[in-house]
C-alpha cells in the first residue's frame, strides 16, 4: 500500500521500516475480509523521521486510497512516545516474524522450533546483518552486540498447542514482481540484548521481510503517550 501511495521506489528501497496490517472492526465472509468500522488504523515505524514525513505526506496527497474493494481517505496521524530500552525486553508481535529468508540450502517454509537455539541464532544473524547494512554502527559496535537471546513464552506455546491453534503460518510475499512463500511466527517472547539492539528491532522491525510488513513489535502493558504529528521544517506539510 505504501509503495502505491508514495510512488517512490528509491525511497523505500533505501529505508528501514515496517508497518502493521490495517486495523479495524472486521468480519471474515465468503468474499474475504469485511470492514464494518468507519475508521481504520495502520501503524508505521522507522528510525528516519524524513522517511515517515514523506510517507505521511504521500498519504494525504491522495484524495482516496483504494485497497481491493475498500475505499480509504487519510484523516489524521499521531506519533507514539518511545519506550525506555533495556537489556531485557518483552515483546508482542503486531505482524508475524520471519526468522530467515533465502538462506542457501534452506526452505523458506521450513518450520523452526522457536524454543531451539537455531531460531534465536537466525534472528541474531538477521539483526546483525541489517544493523551493519544500515551504516549507523561501527564494526566495533556490531562485535560488542554478541549477547543476544530470544526466549519465547513457553506457557503461551503450550496453551496454543492444547487449543490446536497455530502460531506459525506460511504467507505469500510479492518481491521483485515474483510471488514466493515464507513462514512467519506470531508469539510473545523476551529478547536479551544490548539496549541499542532493542531500539533497532523496535524501530526497524525484527527478522526478515520487514519492508513487506513483517516483524513489527509491540511491548505488553506499555501505553505510550500520543502526540499530534509535526513535520520537520524542510518537509512540506499536506
UniProtKB/TrEMBL annotation:
Pfam family, one: Cas_Cas6_C
Native source species: Flammeovirga agarivorans
Keyword RNA-binding: yes
Protein's name in the database: CRISPR-associated endoribonuclease Cas6
Family the entry assigns: Belongs to the CRISPR-associated protein Cas6/Cse3/CasE family.
Classification of source organism: Bacteria, Pseudomonadati, Bacteroidota, Cytophagia, Cytophagales
Residues in CRISPR associated protein Cas6 C-terminal domain copies: 83-219
GO biological process, one term: defense response to virus
CDD domains assigned: Cas6_I-like
